[in-house]
Write a structure and sequence with these properties.
It is a single chain. Helix content is about 20%, strand content about 20%. The chain is of the alpha/beta class and about 170 residues long. The chain has one domain: 3-Layer(aba) Sandwich (Rossmann fold), CATH 3.40.50.1820. Strands 3-4-6-5-7 form a five-stranded mixed β-sheet. It has a two-stranded antiparallel ribbon with strand order 1-2. The chain starts with 8 loop residues before the first strand and ends in a 7-residue tail after the last helix.
């Protein structure tokens, strides 16, 4: 009898049988790596040249959209452009781990980190959100979320001494 090849499984799913998320992504999709996780995100940029008069009396802060359980960037597809126009800035949405096109992580395999952070934890979601602040080169941003995500992120924002409005 031949030896059986050990398959890489996450949540009981053979990872060799999955399609590369980049092949499933929209043309405007982006991917970045954060703490070993390939995070799918989209950025809608406000077109300042065609709307130069629209900036008067507007906040002009970037916005990060945070989806809840079972959702993804797709949840925000119809509102990203109007929100960018309303804020005169960039609007970013990203898929949290286990959702959308963001990579799945095997929690049992180590990556050499002595204290790895659980990619499915709220702490990781907060750190990923802060990573996107850096990606947007923003000191301040508007956070918009629904269901179970916004309260812990806002709580963490207080911990990190960010300004909270609203």
């Amino acid at each position: 009898m031949g030896s059986k090849k050990k398959r890489k499984e996450i949540a009981g799913i053979d990872q060799d049988e999955l399609v590369d998320p980049k092949l499933l992504a929209d043309p405007d999709s982006c991917f970045c790596e954060f703490k070993g996780v390939h995070i799918h995100h989209k950025i809608y940029e406000y077109d300042a040249e065609s709307n130069s008069q629209a900036q008067i009396n507007k906040l002009c802060l970037p916005m990060i959209l945070l989806h809840g359980f079972g959702a993804s960037v797709f949840s925000w597809k119809n509102v990203m452009k109007p929100l960018a126009e309303a804020t005169c800035s960039k609007v970013l949405a990203f898929d949290r781990p286990a959702f959308g096109l963001t990579s799945r992580v095997n929690l049992t395999s180590g990556n050499g980190d002595t204290k790895p952070i659980n990619a499915y934890s709220m702490a990781f979601s907060v750190l990923a959100t802060l990573h996107f602040f850096d990606l947007l080169k923003a000191e301040k941003a508007i956070l918009v979320g629904y269901v179970n995500i916004l309260s812990p992120v806002l709580l963490s924002a207080f911990i990190f001494h960010m300004d909270i409005v609203g």
